[in-house]
Amino acid sequence: MSREPINLTPPIERAILVSAPFKRSSAKHTVDEHLEELGRLADTAGAQVIGTLTQQLDRPHPGTYLGSGKVEELKLRIQELGATLVIFDDELSPAQGKNIEQIVRTRVMDRAELILDIFATRARSSEARMQVELAQLEYLLPRLTRMWTHLEKMRGGIGMRGPGETQLETDRRLIQHRIRILKERLADVERAREIQRQGRHAHFRVALVGYTNAGKSSILRVMAGDGDVFVEDRLFATLDPLTREVPVGDGYTVLLTDTVGFIRKLPHHLVASFRATLAEAREADLLLHVIDASHPAWEEQRDVVDGVLNELGLAERPVAYVMNKMDAVPESEQGAMRERVANLMPNSLFVSAIADGGLDGLRRLLLDSLRQQRPVLEVRIPAADGRLIAEVHRDGEVLDQEAEEDVIVLRARLDERSIGRLRQAGARVKVVQSVNRPSGMPRGTAVPLP
Q1: Which string of DSSP letters, residue by residue, matches 69-86?
Q2: Could you give phi then psi for residue 98, rounded to 5 degrees?
Q3: In terms of DSSP bridges, do strands 407-413 and 376-382 run parallel, antiparallel, or are they unpaired?
Q4: pLDDT for 204-218, tens place per residue?
Q5: Domain 374-433: which topology?
Q6: Nearest alpha-carbon partner for 270 in 124, 118, 142
Q7: Which residues, in sequence order, are bridge partners of residue 292?
Q8: Dihedral of alpha carbons 98, 101, 107, 111, sign
Q9: What is the three-class DSSP state of 333?
Q10: Cross-strand partners of 53
Q11: Is domain 14-120 classified as CATH 1.10.3720.10?
């Protein structure tokens, strides 16, 4: 007797998306774009979007976020479409989520919970998994009561109410204990990362930051010539920082790091949990803010990223704005876009990770930025010390060389580690031109282009 195979694949959630912008905000003008992005998030999480619902609010209802009439309309839509999930574009309070679920009799999820769920499925390294788990537990802790709503049906039963409350408190203690453990482990990871970063001080370090799916990983893949760099046309394809040594010309290389992408209304717990990962950006000599030039809401996305960078304490880092995906911008629109960008962000770069030579300008920018942070030195080495002379040529950029009796005089750009080695070896080193560090540049001012 043959048996039908057991299907262990969970059923696909059928979701209704809900957006409720404020009447006096600009959000009502972009509600379609925001719903489209929420739909992409739902798709990334594995849900099927079967409908949407919108309402303009003066202010959120304290109990149900939407007005009572709209909640009833939502209940009818769920019944008509057979929805199994409702996703709100805004973060709901624990009470709001609980109340809506009781009325519509369907699971309710907000944007923050959806993003956390996506991060949980995308996390690959142990560090990323710990960061996501920490964010999920901190999100869950104030919402535990919502998970215990079934106990309300047992009110009046002798001895029933106490055990429920006891179990709830037990769960709270377990979660709080797990949160402490995760924070301690992530602190250990951060200390290990700090040791790794100390070994990179001699290198010029650049971090790619930007909105999710702006093309940061594609830029790293092409510039490093590394086909193993993961690239996918989906939100949050990259969670773990990935660093590659990238040649930029004249024998120079920089360390280029891809970081996790940002998004509107990124959950605060998630931002806090990923501080260790984003420390790579805090230690960078230069931030490359990558913007998807082909996206109709690129200005809003730029503002979102700038806001998160400011929240992370990166507002004072030198930044270069990189308008990516120019190959996807129609030629008829490129002139107006370049003019708009020139007014908003002078000296921005226009690049493409797909077009031939589309990143040449970016390499020139990195080379020029690296040179600006290396002083021009006069190095005097005995002519008989060929090994030390060869070391200057190998590790630096020699601008000039001449002989004076039994001494070779070189004018060269060198990093701090090379300067220290030369002095220890007995070479006489004098600074001819000091470095020009752009670290005091105000936010929103691009690094001057070469």
Answers
A1: HHHHHHHHHHHHHT-SEE
A2: -65, -45
A3: antiparallel
A4: 889 999 998 899 999
A5: Alpha-Beta Plaits (3.30.70)
A6: 118
A7: 324
A8: negative
A9: helix
A10: 18
A11: no
